[in-house]
């Protein structure tokens, strides 16, 4: 992404992306370690109650500020003009949603198929209020590419969550241990963002600025509401058609399968919208969009493919034998994870270009297609069917619609975007198939650790061979950039498109 943009912005994006990668990597490792520990202390049905509560919490968090912080994050406005208004919107809407979660918890839990999750929903409501209180500081850190400062804050929140959840789980708190530990971590993060933010603002109100902020933010918030309803609809369907144990197994499979896509998109998102906003203003966003799509696909697709290939032995190795049935959902969810990497990129491109209205309608189409697919898939194949439904809808419906939206709103050619991802996609299929064959032949049941190592190694080698021309291009570009130091402001070598 940084190869053709202005030198000053390029340096800031590279620095932000580097620190963002360190932050996300360390955060995900700690979070994953926490999941492994807790999975051995808490039964699958408690994870099912958490999954129900997370449906409510996630939707609330992503509409809590009505998309207003995007106006700060784009970096094309003076924050002094709009930050107080954004802060007022965030606090007000977060307070309303927190109250709604507390009061409506019994009805929400029953509607989502697990009445026992009501208390968990009430506890997680506190995280919504905390998120509203630190929304503007978080947006300011994001806007100014201050990813280095974020590391201590984000890691502190995760460490506090881990320190809290282990003894609580040992005391038999079940799903409430998971909920209260998240509240503790969110509180630490909220305080941390107020400390590291470059500028602090009090709530205020400017009627004229509020109109512009909401015109940009409301379509984004509506899109977020639908997209997170879409991404959590599977928990509702699995919970209602199956049972809490199946829901807990599915939650674990989803978290594992989505790990590559969540890490990659989180790293990209640390710099994407501010960078895309500036590139759009400079008129260079369409060309950069194709380059970013190719790079993301090349780097991220094999990660999801490897998880698919060694899913069974990997789950047993990490979480224990009682979680083995979760592997049934991994095939579809891993394929869906690859599509999700692209859809998140496409959404960020549209936000950077200021074209947020179309995002809402993409999510409406996604939800409309996914609902019947999930119901049919889970009815026929259990938790595996949920994965199949996600994969089919994402690749056959959502990605094509997004390509059209990006072409119209951003100006990037849909055909070029698709061709940029084709080679990595073919390599990922070969990677997953070879990893699965080797893992099965090695002894996925009797020697799961060996099966993971052997299958993963072979799958990675197959991917690198299958995508060798792409890899050599990136290697040559990297060597060219590292072998000579260009003078300040000079044009650097572009990665071929």
TrEMBL record:
Localization terms from the record: Cell membrane
Keyword Transmembrane: yes
Keyword Manganese recorded: no
Segments traversing the membrane: 21-43, 49-73, 85-108, 120-142, 151-173, 179-196, 216-237, 249-277, 298-320, 326-347, 359-377, 383-405, 417-441, 447-472
Membrane-topology descriptor: Multi-pass membrane protein
Classification via InterPro entries: Poly_Biosynth_Transport (IPR050833)
Keyword list, A-Z: Cell membrane, Membrane, Transmembrane, Transmembrane helix
Family that this chain belongs to: Belongs to the polysaccharide synthase family.
Protein name: Lipopolysaccharide biosynthesis protein
Source organism of the structure: Agromyces allii
């Amino acid at each position: 992404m940084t190869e053709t943009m202005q030198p000053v912005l390029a340096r800031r994006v590279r620095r932000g992306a580097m620190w963002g990668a360190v932050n996300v990597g360390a955060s995900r490792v700690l979070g994953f370690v926490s999941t492994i520990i807790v999975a051995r202390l808490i039964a699958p049905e408690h994870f099912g109650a958490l999954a129900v509560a997370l449906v409510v919490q996630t939707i609330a968090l992503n509409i809590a500020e009505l998309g207003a912080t995007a106006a700060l994050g784009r970096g094309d406005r003076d924050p002094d003009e709009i930050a107080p208004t954004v802060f007022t919107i965030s606090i007000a809407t977060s307070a309303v949603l927190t109250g709604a979660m507390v009061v409506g918890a019994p009805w929400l839990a029953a509607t989502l198929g697990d009445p026992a999750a009501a208390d968990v929903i009430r506890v997680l409501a506190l995280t919504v209020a905390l998120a509203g209180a630190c929304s503007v500081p978080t947006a300011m850190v994001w806007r100014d590419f201050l990813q280095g400062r974020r590391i201590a804050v984000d890691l502190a929140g995760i460490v506090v969550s881990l320190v809290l959840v282990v003894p609580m789980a040992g005391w038999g708190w079940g799903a409430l241990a998971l909920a209260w530990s998240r509240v503790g971590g969110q509180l630490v993060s909220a305080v941390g963002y107020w400390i590291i933010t470059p500028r602090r603002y009090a709530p205020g109100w400017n009627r004229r600025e509020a109109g512009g902020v909401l015109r940009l933010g409301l379509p984004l918030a509506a899109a977020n509401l639908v997209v997170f309803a879409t991404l959590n609809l599977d928990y509702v369907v699995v919970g209602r058609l199956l049972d809490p144990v199946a829901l807990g197994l599915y939650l674990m499979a989803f978290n594992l399968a989505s790990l590559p896509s969540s890490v990659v998109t989180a790293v990209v998102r640390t710099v994407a919208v501010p960078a895309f906003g500036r590139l759009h203003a400079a008129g260079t966003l369409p060309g950069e969009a194709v380059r970013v799509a190719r790079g993301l696909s090349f780097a991220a697709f094999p990660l999801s493919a490897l998880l698919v290939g060694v899913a069974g032995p990997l789950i047993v190795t990490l979480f224990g034998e009682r979680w083995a049935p979760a592997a049934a959902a991994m095939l579809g969810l891993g394929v869906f994870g690859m599509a999700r990497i692209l859809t998140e990129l496409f959404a960020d491109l549209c936000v950077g270009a200021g074209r947020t209205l179309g995002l809402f309608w993409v999510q409406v189409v996604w939800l409309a297609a996914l609902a019947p697919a999930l119901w049919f898939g889970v009815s026929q194949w259990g938790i595996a069917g949920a994965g199949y439904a996600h994969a089919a809808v994402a690749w056959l419906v959502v990605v094509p619609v997004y390509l059209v939206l990006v072409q119209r709103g951003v100006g990037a050619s849909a055909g070029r975007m698709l061709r940029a991802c084709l080679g990595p996609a073919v390599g990922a299929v070969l990677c997953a198939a070879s990893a699965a064959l080797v893992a099965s032949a090695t002894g996925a049941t009797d020697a799961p650790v060996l099966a993971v190592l052997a299958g993963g190694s072979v799958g990675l080698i197959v991917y690198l061979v299958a995508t060798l021309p792409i890899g050599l291009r990136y290697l040559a570009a990297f060597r060219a950039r590292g072998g000579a130091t260009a003078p300040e402001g000079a044009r650097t070598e572009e990665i071929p498109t």
